[in-house]
Design goal:
Layout lengths: L2 E5 L10 E7 L9 E3 L10 H10 L9 E5 H4 L9 E6 L3 H4 L14 H15 L5 E5 L5 H14 L16 E5 L6 H25 L7 H14 L3 E5 L1 H7 L2 H7 L7 E7 L10 E12 L19 H15 L5 E11 L11 E3 L5 E3 L7 H13 L5 E6 L3 H7 L4 E5 L1 H14 L3 E3 L17 E2 L9 H10 L6 E6 L5 E2 L10 E2 L4 H17 L1
Parallel strand pairs: 1-7, 2-5, 2-6, 6-7, 10-11, 10-14, 13-17, 14-18, 15-16
Antiparallel strand pairs: 2-3, 4-5, 8-9, 9-11, 12-13, 15-18, 19-20
């Protein structure tokens, strides 16, 4: 990952191999792009002349558009002769973030988060370079946080690739007047923890399913727990069966690799009865064939990502420990492989969950909610203050919200709080309802519930949320469906590479920090 530092010395910018500038489109379509600069001015920079040059070169500052020119063409005095300037466009979101008629800011694209994406795009474009200095408006703490996170996350590469990737940008320096201050140092430390958590999530999601299965995933969680002094408890297939985890056992029984339920907990040393306790549940289907309700072949290649929820909650509990957050966090990783083996569960089977609820299986491809329900019910036995679950749960999420927007359901107050934390973290999330009239779709004549609606696919994301709600009782709860946002099967954009994205990490970590702030205020 790219090494990062802060500086407040504007003259030091001129010694960088590459100087990164941001630009917004002109108010008028035929005008010159506007450079986005920090307080003060760079030595030798005529921003108006630079904008005119960019216009003549055909640069319009569209989203993710980049243009690299010799530094002497923009900074004629003082820059290294071999240096260059990389200009990155913000696109229309820079202006839209200030427009109350649009949902851009409500989906996490505030101006600070536009800078986050811009920084990530710049670092991706500079793979193979030795060093760069980012000269962006990062003199306020929120903007600095965003630029630092974007810089670090944009430098991600998956080390497990058999192809040797181009080395990421070696080092990046961010120009900010907060360099050398407690605020600046805190922002740098926080950004490193967030970026490490995103990288861990991406690494796990990108692993092929023949290397990451429920057993090896549990082993990886145990290694991380040992390194960070976290409490780790792993239930194997025998314990799961003996204790009545019918959902996890049923999903995993068609695979030669048995399921696991992993509990990873962080507890501050001074925790007491008043310390908030947040339970995080992650769906960990390491490969989803659909079981006997087999998926079409075209839908299977990215099903290695069906464990993204478990990867997310593991990364978040580790980050909570690294930041020494004054909140108890318990992550539950519900791990199974959904395969159509000779012992696979069948449509019309009835399984009994760990809390005694019976469920008729109507669709073996609605397996995520089964493993999640067992984990949710078990988490409830510890009486957490709130519970959140993260899952690549339904294709209906993609139909409703597309590939980049997380659907959030649950207790209205917590649901809206999660969406607010997503907005602050620069992630796109939208509150979704749980209509009571849809609950009847889960009624079964043979069991307490059925796992999927029969004969209707309408409102599938919401019906899945209603199923999970059955296992949380009166506890404040939120469900994040990240089926689309967790995996990018297209081209890279912003700071997001192809493959695992780490969606949800920054949101959940922001929520934990919000719990800490609320506790201090009370």
């Amino acid at each position: 990952m790219t090494v990062i530092a802060l500086t407040s010395d504007q003259n030091s910018v001129l010694s960088a191999e590459v100087i990164v500038l941001g630009a917004a489109p002109a108010d008028e379509s035929k005008g010159a792009p506007t450079l986005l600069l920090p307080a003060g001015s760079l030595p030798g920079l005529d921003s108006a002349a630079a904008g005119t040059l960019l216009q003549r070169l055909g640069f319009r500052a569209d989203t993710d558009e980049v243009l690299r020119v010799p530094a002497t063409s923009v900074l004629p005095a003082g820059a290294r002769e071999d240096a260059s300037v990389l200009v990155v466009g913000t696109g229309a979101d820079w202006g839209r973030a200030q427009d109350p008629r649009r949902d851009v800011a409500a989906l996490g694209s505030t101006r600070e988060q536009v800078l986050r994406r811009l920084a990530g795009r710049a670092v991706r474009a500079l793979a193979g370079c030795q060093d760069a200095c980012l000269v962006l408006p990062a003199d306020a703490a929120p903007a600095l946080n965003a630029v630092l996170e974007g810089t670090l996350i944009g430098g991600y590469t998956w080390a497990g690739s058999s192809k040797a990737p181009t080395a990421p940008l070696g080092s990046a320096t961010v120009l900010s007047s907060l360099a050398g201050t407690a605020s600046g140092d805190g922002a740098l430390r926080h950004a490193q923890v967030v970026a490490d958590a995103v990288a861990l999530t991406r690494d796990l999601v990108n692993e092929p399913p023949n290397r990451l299965n429920p057993v090896t995933f549990a082993q990886r969680a145990a290694q991380i727990g040992q390194a960070e002094a976290l409490q780790v408890l792993i239930r194997d297939e025998a314990q799961l069966a003996a204790e009545g985890f019918g959902g996890i056992v049923g999903v995993g029984q068609g695979s030669p690799t048995p399921p696991r339920l992993v509990r990873v907990a962080w507890e501050p040393v001074d925790a007491d009865a008043g310390t908030p306790h947040v339970a995080l549940i992650g769906k960990g289907i390491t490969f989803d064939s659909g079981g006997l309700s087999l998926k079409p072949p075209a839908s299977m290649p990215e099903m290695k990502s069906d464990m993204a929820g478990a990867a997310t909650v593991l990364a978040v509990v580790r980050a909570a420990a690294q930041l020494i957050l004054p909140v108890k966090v318990t992550a539950w990783l519900a791990l199974a492989e959904n395969m159509p083996g000779s012992s696979a569960q069948r449509p019309s089977d009835i399984v009994t969950m760990v809390n005694g609820t019976t469920v008729e299986i109507t669709n073996t491809d609605a397996e995520g909610r089964l493993v999640m329900a067992d984990a949710l019910a078990q988490a409830m036995t510890e009486s957490p203050s709130m519970v959140l679950d993260v899952a690549t749960l339904t294709g209906a999420q993609l139909v409703a919200l597309g590939e980049r927007v997380t659907g959030v359901m649950g207790t209205p107050s917590l649901r809206d709080r999660v969406v607010a934390c997503a907005q602050a973290a620069g992630e796109a999330a939208w509150p979704m309802p749980l209509p009571e009239h849809l609950r009847s779709k889960l009624d079964s004549p043979y069991a307490d519930l059925r796992n999927s609606a029969v004969g209707s696919r309408w409102g599938g994301m919401l019906v899945a949320g209603l199923f999970l709600r059955e296992f949380v009782g009166e506890t404040d709860w939120a469900h994040l469906d990240v089926a689309g946002p967790a995996f990018n099967d297209g081209s890279a954009w912003g700071m997001t590479t192809t493959g695992g994205t780490g969606a949800g990490v920054a949101t959940l970590l922001g929520l934990l920090e919000d719990c800490c702030d609320s506790g201090r205020q009370s």
